[in-house]
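TICKET #2291
ISSUE: user wants both folds in one file
ATTACHMENT 1:
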Amino acid sequence: MATTPVWSFFCGSFPFSGLSVRSHLMNDPKIFFAGCLDADPYFCLKQCDRTIVSELGSWGVKVRELHKELPPGKVFRKINRKVLYPALVAKATKSCVLNRIDDYALRNTHYSSLLHISSQCYANLIPKSSIPTTITVHDVAEFDYPEGYTSAQLRRWETRIEQLKNAELVFTVSDFTRQELIKKTDVSAEKIIVNPNGIDCGFRVLDESEILNLSRNPLGTRHKVVGTRAKELVNGALETRFLVLAAGSNIYRKNLPTLFKAVEELGRRGVPVTLVKAGEPIGQKSASGSESATARRDDGGQRTERRGLKTVLHGVEIINLGFVSQTELNTLYNLCDVLAFPSFYEGFGMPVVEAQLCGLPCVVSNASSLPEVGGDGALYHDPADADALADQLERVYKDRRLRGELQEKGFSNAERFSWGKHVDILLKGFQRVLGN
């Protein structure tokens, strides 16, 4: 059973210091931070929210959590999922306990001067709040790509998007998402501020000793392909396979069928290619509960043949790693040859910048926010053109100089994004809302 989302609220106090953003933010400086903050190493939004709260602390903000889940760990996670919040009682639990806590806190203004909501997923809190409210919108993909979402999810999404116009300020993680809101919602353009995501500094280039350790213990036996690549790098051997990394979910807009066709084409051209899939395993239902793109017959009429971790599609080998931790993902960014990210639609596209931080060349779609985020540190292709994707991947495979250029430009591009900058823009937005 899926874990029912649990609200977490934070109340923070800004100390009075020499920095104008902090010293003049408000007379009684308290804010609520509403987000998805339970510990989960595999869910990007939760990691982002935790990082933002940590950055607020580095600015001197004292953070207090008003609602808690049990501590992280397998045992506690199972208790959260199967005992505290089982699916059959989730609605009752949420309405009878959590929502009452939320309502009381948000309707009593002496608790806080401002509420910040970390995602459009939680926009249903806006009408509950009797204090000024700001919110971050990551994307509005459901307008153009409802595939992968159930009808019930889409109805809830529409209700929440409708509430955005009632927020005092809306942050978006890219200018692309800002333009989408202006075109497709009633949110005033004057209310919308672009505030790009930061990238966790844990993503980095591994040194030789770390790669040596990986060759001995490659993240457990299920990651043999990682150990093989690590041994090749340590021994200076000629790399025998061209490892194309795909990271993320399998919903339709991720456009995996085009990637499958491109990898198949590379194989026909004689490239010894292996596709490494991290995230939602190929062939499973998407996280939303609906059928994923990879389970449909839009990959050329053939379903994948699964053999444990290995999947064979049109004779091309795919390594199905499943969900990986941030440490494991960092390792994959270091040991694969290229990131392929052919998505039709992204509000930001964090894997692109994560890969760039690790020195991994990126071949990405030229759609939505991706050119804005990838900058000149990536190669681009039409997301509907599998041959164009194959061409760009082949360029990376054959051209050592190009790989070096993409690495250097990727490092430079990734420097544009940090959580410190993100929180700075948040605080200036809070200052604007509160009239200081």
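ATTACHMENT 2:
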Amino acid sequence: MDVKTSVIIPELCGQLIQQFINGSDFVLAMNEDNHVFSWGLNHRGQCARDVTPEGVYLKPQLISQLNDKNIAYICCGVWHSLALTTDGKAYGWGNNYSGQIGSEWQRIVTKLGHNSHENHYKSLFIELSAIGSGGFGTVYKVKHRIDEHIYAVKRVQIK
């Protein structure tokens, strides 16, 4: 859908936006309080939102995970985003197929900051139902967020 004339973006009115940062087909906006908003195509998690089958967010939304980070600089690649804080911490999210966000084991990162195995599991799968339990954990019927195939996954709890 092409927009032939300029339109107001109501979600950003009054937010005191200072800059827009463009990815391939998504946009980030940062306001004077260094809060970051995202919208557009999100099929690789580049908007720091849940990856959905539709993969598109048409309205800007605050990336609340960055609120307390005091972002100084932000940039976008084709399908990933990077942010640098005033105290020198770097955050990355989105497409990591070539390691561009600095996480060796995770291909798509939808949450920022510390990438735990729990976050990785939740970024990949939607739990549909528990199938059974046994030694160390529970087996779940899950749907992969990207390829939408159904799998059986055992979540092991080690205490």
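RESOLUTION: both attachments delivered.
EXTRA DETAIL ON ATTACHMENT 2: Residues 117-124 form the longest helix (8 residues).
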